[in-house]
Task: structure prediction
Amino acid sequence: MGKLPKELTILKSDLIKMQRKIPINEMFLTMEEKQILKNIRSQTARWNVNNVTRTQAYLDFFCSNPDIHWAFLGHMVSRNGGWNMTDLKGDLVSKLMSDDTKNVFFSFLERGNWLIFQDAFPQFLLYEECRKRNKNLFYLLPYLNVSVFMQANWEHYWQFENRYVLAIAQVINEQSYLEHRIVHNPKYKDKVLNSLQFFLQDILSFNHILFPFNNGKRITLLGQTLHQFDSLHERIMLGKRLYYILFHSGDQFERIFHWALSNPHTGSRKDYWKDVFNDINEGIPGRFSRRLKECNVKKGEAKLYSPILRNAWSNVKHPAAEIGDWFVHSDVIRYLVKDEKKIKGEIEGDYCEALEKLELAAMAKTIIFK
Result:
């Protein structure tokens, strides 16, 4: 498999040593340390209300800490999570599902979005405390139920300042964190991952992660498609490809970042394509016709309904996250080796084709079961 670079060999050694340490009880921390933890928990809860608040919190943090690349990657992926949530109440996907199925799918998406935020955002807030005090405080991460894997990676970043390694470590961490809490959770495995609707969306290539930007004339889309959601390896590799699309080119990053700053996340796909989607339902009940052609709405036809999040779903009060550290084997460090393969990220053609297929499927089901 090849030799690890020296920097990652050091990280691996540090991680193995750290794995053997057991944190002391929180009652033995200083008053200052306890207050830091209290503030972090309070701030995290304040922003972990719904997909819109989480997505904004990631962007706000990134604007203050542009060296932490995962914050912007997390922001853009969380936008896509919100669009998937509102699709369940929009024009196309909603016609393929019963109300009960929509609720289960929303629960699946919302729980995953909530879990990642309550794991990732405390790390960000502790990093800010470290910078404010010019002091390494990452030994406090275990008290926030953060994996030892990330404790080692944050300490490594504090020393080496390798932005790529930290960002990909966070990709690995968050996807591994979801593995047993969401992907292999019996509540979702049968009703979502093994369901006909999930299978249909996979076949129709509708599992797209989209990064919009203004090319001077119109909003263009870059991104990637995920087919094997239940594969941890595939999700990590997707994260690496998405990172490349966002950060390999300064010009490309600036265009996507400028779009994100200029278009606050609402959950509606109108955020990026106002000519195709509307957050007001323009459709006429009982009328069935093809409205799309090459991602344009035909003349005289209504735009696709894509509601904003607050009109589609109520806020959810979540049970506490399941405890336990996912990290058991240091081989995952190999994912931190930088890939040399270039990723173009062209997705618009596939996305437009998928939208048209989804429209056909929604029409067919509506007409058959009318």
Remarks:
- The chain has one domain: 6-16+29-368.
